[in-house]
């Protein structure tokens, strides 16, 4: 199973989650696959752009869509895919023009083999990501905690077994959030919950070390 962070190369590096272990920081509670790390970075940029102190569930959903739609689109019927885009734009309060500008810039940089230039996305602050990392909102923290409990894949960190969070695990836990307005609206978009659950909980295939960005 290849991840980011192995000594072999930077390409194989596995990323820490929000509770990274550096110096006196809390112990690592989970790892993120590359596509989830990209989504988290994009979500942080969205939160910074509206001067928020926390990353909301909607921010992460938008990041997952922008950075990993090829992989997640299979959980919606083709006829419903325009609806999920409108839904995400709405809950994130993003204009269609700004939304598509981000998608186009992300796709262009990915095709050119460069790291997505999050700091230069339209509407973002030049030093937005240079500040102290934002923490997840209570709702997002709860979803991530639930994802840690159901994740079928693990990594070894300092003698401990750490869950690896995939897009499917996180999306499933957002969908399952009891009483969540976002969860209810997400379900109404036609998301195939049974198919998502089957993939999210399956231990048969290791999580991808390379993300599949949206095209």
Question: Can you offer a commentary on this structure?
Answer:
The chain is of the alpha/beta class. The chain has one domain (28-200): Clp, N-terminal domain (Double Clp-N motif). The chain is built from eight helices and seven strands; from the N terminus they run βββαβαααβαββααα. The strands form two sheets. A four-stranded mixed β-sheet has the order 2-3-7-6. Helix 1 (34-49) packs antiparallel against helix 2 (57-72). The longest helix is centred in the N-terminal third of the chain and has 16 residues, at 34-49. It is globular, with a radius of gyration of 16 Å. The model is unreliable at 1-14, 18-23, 122-130 and 210-215 (pLDDT under 50).
**How many strands in all?**
7
CATH structural class: Mainly Alpha
Contiguous low-pLDDT stretches (5 residues minimum) are: 1-14, 18-23, 122-130, 210-215
Number of domains: 1
What's the CATH architecture? Orthogonal Bundle
> What is the fourth-level CATH superfamily?
Clp, N-terminal domain
Kindly identify the CATH topology.
Answer: Double Clp-N motif
Q: Cα distance, first to last residue?
A: 26 Å
Overall pLDDT level: 76
> Would you tell me the structural class of the helices and strands?
alpha/beta
Number of helices: 8
Radius of gyration: 16 Å
User: What form results from the Cα inertia axes?
Assistant: globular
Q: Could you give the order of the helices and strands? A: EEEHEHHHEHEEHHH
């Amino acid at each position: 199973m290849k991840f980011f962070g192995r000594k072999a190369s930077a390409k194989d590096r596995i990323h820490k989650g929000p509770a990274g272990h550096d110096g006196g920081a809390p112990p690592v509670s989970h790892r993120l696959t590359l596509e989830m790390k990209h989504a988290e970075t994009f979500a942080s940029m969205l939160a910074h752009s509206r001067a928020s102190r926390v990353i909301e569930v909607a921010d992460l959903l938008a990041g997952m869509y922008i950075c990993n739609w090829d992989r997640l689109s299979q959980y919606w019927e083709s006829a419903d895919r325009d609806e999920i885009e409108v839904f995400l734009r709405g809950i994130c309060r993003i204009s269609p023009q700004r939304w598509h500008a981000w998608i186009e810039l992300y796709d262009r940089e990915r095709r050119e083999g460069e790291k997505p230039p999050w700091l230069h996305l339209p509407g973002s602050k030049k030093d937005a990501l240079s500040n102290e990392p934002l923490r997840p909102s209570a709702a997002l923290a709860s979803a991530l905690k639930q994802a840690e409990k159901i994740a079928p894949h693990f990594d070894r960190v300092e003698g401990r077994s750490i869950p690896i969070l995939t897009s499917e695990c996180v999306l499933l836990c957002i969908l399952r959030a009891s009483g969540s307005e976002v969860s209810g609206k997400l379900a109404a978009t036609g998301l195939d919950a049974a198919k998502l659950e089957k993939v999210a909980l399956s231990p048969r295939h290791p999580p991808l070390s390379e993300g599949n960005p949206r095209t």
